[in-house]
Amino acid sequence: MKKKCGFIGYFIFFMILALTVVSVAHARGVHLEKTDAKLYMVDAEMLRLIPVKIKIPVGDTQRMAQRLLDELVEGRDENPKIRRLIPKISGCLTARMEDYNVTVDIKSEVIKKHPEGRDLELLTIYQIVNTLTGLDGVKTVRFTIDGKTQRNFMGYLDMRETYVPDYFV
Question: Are residues 18 and 57 in the same domain?
Fold first, then answer.
């Protein structure tokens, strides 16, 4: 003879299943909560920056900053209105949070593969600065190259400066 579970039995089963999935995801470091963020990408004509809305996992500011840098490196190559300036090199940009400042370390390999030109250098730097300062708790961005403070990135901008956002770039 078969026994029927009924609605309450199924409800309890699915609640236990849902709690198990959430517990496993939390234990593995998977963030279920997401927040809105903006990536500043270079337009197809390479003249200005355009904001692209995305969702990123909620975490501490440094982790969220690193996620945004990874998204910038990943790019949006499938979108014909956006061009890539930052070479697609895994781990080429890293973020370190200090008070209200993020220090971004750029691997020298990025410089070797980056297109030449003052305007392109400016767009690259401000796509990083504008993206990161969009996070709560980030007001300024500094840069290092291979872990060291250096005078220039590609010869045009002073990398010893502390950068604030410029949404008119």
Answer: no
Kindly report, residue by residue over 134-146, the tens digit of the pLDDT. 999 999 999 999 9
Burial class (CB in 10 A: 0-12, 13-18, 19+), 30: exposed
φ, ψ of residue 58 in degrees (nearest 5): -75, 135
How big, in percent rounded to 5, are the helix, strand and coil portions of the chain?
35, 25, 40
CATH for 97 = 3.30.70.2210
pLDDT band, very low/low/confident/very high, at 153 (cuts 50, 70, 90): confident
Q: Are 158 and 152 in contact (CB under 8 A)?
A: yes
pLDDT computed for residue 32 by the predictor: 76
Q: What is the pTM of this model?
A: 0.80
Q: Which of 157, 147, 98 is nearest to 124 (CA)?
A: 157
Half-sphere exposure of 63 (CA within 13 A, CB side): 10
> Residues 6 or more apart from 29 whose CB is under 8 A from it?
none
